[in-house]
Write a structure and sequence with these properties.
By secondary structure, this protein is α/β, with parallel strands linked by helices. Helix content is 40%, strand content 24%. The strands form 2 sheets. The protein has a 10-stranded mixed sheet, with helices on both faces. It has a two-stranded antiparallel sheet with strand order 3-4. The longest helix is centred in the last third of the chain and has 27 residues.
Length: 292
């Protein structure tokens, strides 16, 4: 399923934790792992030593990729290593596109630290721009089970969610995992008015139809869903996280944008919040960028 995996790394603790999971996936799929470090040209890293110009970030990057390569070689995993100069997020996106990468794996934050977390970070920008599926991992995640046993695909019936479902069923098939389908009905804007009760009933009916369609799609691919659930909650990300905790989910597969439309894309969306806070890895799937 994954022939070429890209792992951009800055050598931080978050990157080291994510790399362990990369090696597990690569070992299972006989993948080639591309280990990339980007020397950020927006930083002042050039010093003079003995009359020669030395880019300290490039030197540091070479050490970082060499260390990661050593770990991969110990597992017998084929690698490609490279240090490039440039703006990190755009360099990563360009590399993934030019090397036919099947999966990009990154921690939710690196050396910028927990204070920056995801918003505005390299990881968030790569999610926005890359057409390649991207696996994000929180560095403070205690353990990551692999192979995955339970895969969750939250769906709102959008085209992006359908793309995520296609990937989710592939993973369930390849890993022999149970597929969970979830549709969340948000109650945040509903009060006690009778008209709101009617609206809630209509939303529940719509969610049922969405799940029926998703289940039919999965079944056609040979995957019988282990669960088809409608949940009600005031916060969609929180409701998804609760489901993850209560059902021992190992991986969440979600589209980069849903029914809020392309103008919202990722920033401030359910996906962005979920990537920030999920206790398990999140695989974001880029959908076709059609008109909304």
């Amino acid at each position: 399923m994954y022939t070429q995996i890209l792992f951009p790394t800055d050598g931080s603790e978050g990157s080291a934790a994510a790399f362990d999971h990369v090696l597990e996936i690569a070992d299972s799929h006989d993948s080639t792992v591309h280990i990339l470090n980007v020397a950020d040209t927006t930083q002042d890293s050039v010093l003079r030593r003995q009359g020669e110009v030395v880019d300290t970030l490039v030197q540091e990057g070479e050490t970082i990729v060499d260390d990661a390569d050593d770990r991969a070689q110990q597992r017998g995993i084929e690698t490609v290593t490279e240090v490039r100069k440039g703006v990190p997020y755009s360099t990563i996106v360009d590399y993934a596109a030019s090397h036919d990468v099947d999966l990009v794996v990154m921690p939710t934050h690196g050396r910028q630290g927990l204070r920056r977390f995801l918003l505005g970070s390299t990881t968030e920008r790569v999610i926005r721009q890359a057409e390649t599926p991207m696996l994000t991992i929180r560095p403070d995640t205690d353990t990551i089970d692999y192979p995955y046993r339970n895969v969750l695909v939250p769906t709102d019936g959008s085209e992006s969610a359908q793309d995520a479902l296609a990937i989710g069923t592939d993973i369930a098939t390849t890993e022999g995992a149970a597929l969970h389908l979830l549709s969340v009905v948000t109650t945040a804007t509903l009060g006690v008015d009778v008209r709101n009760e009617i609206q809630l009933s209509m939303l529940e009916e719509s969610a049922t139809k969405i799940l029926d369609d998703a289940s039919a799609f999965a079944t056609e691919t040979g995957v019988e869903p282990a669960a088809e659930t409608i949940e009600f909650g005031s916060s969609i990300p929180q409701t998804i996280r609760t489901y993850v905790d209560e059902h021992d989910i190992d991986l969440v597969v979600v589209g980069t944008h849903g029914r809020t439309g392309f103008d919202r894309y990722l920033l401030g969306s359910v996906t962005e919040q979920l990537v920030r806070t999920s206790p398990v890895p999140v695989l974001t799937v880029w959908g076709e960028r059609g008109d909304t």
